[in-house]
Amino acid sequence: MSADHRTLDRRRIADMTARELEAFNAKTPRSAALYARARETLACGIGSSYQWRDPWPIYLKEGKGSHLWDIDGNEYLDYLNGFGSMVQGHAHPAIVKAVQEQVLHGQQFSEPVEDGVIVAEELKRRWQLPKWRFTNTGSESTMDAIRIARAVTGRDTVMKVFGSYHGHHDYVMVSVPGNYGDFGPRDEYGSFPYGKGIPDAVVRMTVAVPFNDLDAMERRLQKMVAEDRVPACMIMEPAMMNIGIVLPEPGYLEGVRELTTRYGVLLIFDEVKTGLTVAPGGGTEYWGVKPDLVALAKCLGGGVPCGAIGGREEVFAEVENFNVWQVGTFNGNPLAMAAAKATLFEVLTPAGYEHLAAVRQRLADGCEKVIADHDLPAYTVTLGAKGCVTFSTERVVDYQSYCDYQDAEMMELAWLYMANRGIYAAPGRDQEFTISVQHSSEDADKYAAAFAELAEELTA
Ligand SMILES: Cc1ncc(COP(=O)(O)O)c(C=O)c1O
User: pLDDT tens for residues 311-346?
Assistant: First the structure.
């Protein structure tokens, strides 16, 4: 492993991190107090374990356009954007209008509505996949897609990419990022549960292969054929979006498509993050490789929980003949459908995508310039409305290289440093920034300016 990224002064990083943490703590006393109250009732004081932050979470109060306010009144430019689910920006007038109008006419029927048909028609046009159903979250979308794949193939085993996250149901809470020590040989990675409570039998049923490595995947498939446990499906994001951003190498997705077809394994693209943010028809359109099933959620509903799955006619036949029960009280509910319709027809329009790409590029160019000016051991990756700065001199191509090379301490410092300068970046070492249609060029410049200040101090 290259020692290059260690050339940054580790002592200075530690000192700056301690100073920035102290400053941030001093700015967030109300969050601290609410945390003390919340933990009496809410486990860890939060609604989801991913909201955990040491020493306390930041409780937010308001979002408007590209801006956020916490309960201490601190104002931030939001680049977390709800883990990428708010590409519309906060309180977008078209979403507000659609939801307000629908609320006056009923929020929930558990019966289909016309907006649901319109949304499905538009998703069909964008993804060029003929059949659709709705869910409420990304986890439901990947769970239902896997169940359909199992029904179609009559098989149980699931193949996934090592280190990818696909939601919180048992089938996929395996070999996501975690402290597993040695994963095993590349074409025989182990299956590791993500926390307790996941049945052993399910863990063993989920097998992970490295991203961007067709040879390892093929060797694993051959082994599974020999063991008489060919997978029902390969579920994957077309680009890994939970270790910064890792793009597919040229030919990789085409190779996965070819391998899965050859072995009779259904290909599921988990486009919960890439869908709608990368291109109008997501990664499927962007890379021109068509899966058998696609899973969507996050920004589809513009802040109203909403997901969808789409797929080929033959695959959805299992739903249409009621062999698979794809169900849910809130699936396709009128509020979500109204918000999704406004998203697709009024927000994520060709002009919307142009704006996202322009602002994202300005931000990425700004960061690239800072990296070059200060000779930082880092690089940027961009994709549609998203991007990230990866602190590493080596290219991260899969989860193993992420573990080997990414500079976790710098990621921690960068978050605190940016937060103290009014930039709410994606927390932790694994996320990317998301631009919304309400972010401006000036917003992008402010991000780059805060990053420049960090680089300046780091290398002075
Ligand atoms: C790629 C991917 N798939 C699925 C999910 C699960 O989505 P949800 O949290 O809405 O259940 C996530 C969540 O971050 C995700 O990033």
Answer: 999 999 999 999 999 999 999 999 999 999 999 999
Cβ of 83 below 6 Å from ligand 1:
yes
| Ligand 1 atom nearest 298 alpha carbon | 10
For residue 431, pLDDT over 90 is answered with: no
Residue with CA at minimum distance from ligand 1 atom 2:
166
93: closest CA among 442, 436, 355, 445? Answer: 436
297 C-beta closer than 6 A to ligand 1: yes
Does the CB atom of residue 432 touch ligand 1 within 6 A?
A: no
Q: How far is the CA of 138 from the centre of ligand 1 (A)?
A: 5
Give the distance (Å) from ligand 1 centre to CA of residue 164: 10
Residue 450 CA, chain-centre distance (Å), reads 24
Degrees, nearest 5: CA angle 167-171-173: 50
